[in-house]
Structure formats: structure tokens, C-alpha cells
Amino acid sequence: MPWFAGVPRDQVQWSPTLDADKCVGCGMCMNCGKKVYDWLPDQQKAVVARPMECVVGCNTCANLCRGRAISFPEVKELMKFYAHHKVWDHVKAALELEGKIPVKK
Predict the structure, then answer these.
(1) DSSP label at 60?
(2) Are 12 and 58 in contact (CB under 8 A)?
(3) Residue 38's pLDDT is what?
(4) Do residues 44 and 59 make contact, with C-beta atoms less than 8 angstroms apart?
(5) Across all residues in the chain, what is the average pLDDT?
(6) Is the distance from CB of 40 to CB of 53 less than 8 angstroms?
(7) Residue ranges of the chain that CATH labels 3.30.70.20
């Protein structure tokens, strides 16, 4: 699936930032299914270890962070990226090709 219309993932500006001063060590971010975070046992806090593994558009960890320590880029910037690279057109064409949505006649 060409989610980024052929643009390498490292050029898509979407990954979490974790403010260590706000982190209360709740561990909620460690539930990330993509394993973006690592736990620092000596500090009882998490760190962003694999930012490019973050699913573009997901911000569940930030929504659930008890200390409000996690932030993401503005969604409007991601939308600009999608428009500039015609990501929506590429994704729709791929979904039609795979038969996941009907081809509009």
C-alpha cells in the first residue's frame, strides 16, 4: 500500500516527542503496538527509541499519557504533506486495485 505515495517514511514528519520533565512514569506509552518507546528502568520513565516506527496519524499514546508529556506535530502540517504528495489519490487507487473499495465509474 503506497501510504506515502513513494515518499520514504523518514521524510514524513510524524513521530512523538516526549518531555522527560512532564513524564510521570505511568508506562502507558509502553503499550504502543509498534514499540516506539523504550523504558529506562533507572529513571522509571520512557524514551522515544524508534520514532520512524510510529504509525503516521496515530497519537493514542499522547491522548492517554497521564503526564501530558507526549506531543506530535500539528495534523494540519501532515495534511499539507498529503495534499502536496497526492497521498489520498495514491491510496484510493491502490484500494480500488485491491478491490477493497469499488471503482467509481
Answers:
(1) H
(2) no
(3) 98
(4) no
(5) 93
(6) no
(7) 17-73
**105: amino acid identity, one letter:** K
Residue position matching grid coordinates 477493497: 100
pLDDT at 65: 98
Q: What are phi and psi of 17, to 5 degrees?
A: -120, 135
- pLDDT higher than threshold 70 for residue 3: no
What is residue 84's DSSP assignment?
A: H
Quick one: pLDDT band at residue 2, thresholds 50, 70, 90? low
Alpha helices in the chain (DSSP H): 60-64, 75-84, 87-97
As given in the structure block, the three cell numbers for residue 12 are 514524513
CATH number of 17-73: 3.30.70.20
Q: Give the DSSP letter string of 36-82.
A: -EEEETTTTEEEE--GGGSPTT--HHHHH-TT--EE---HHHHHHHH
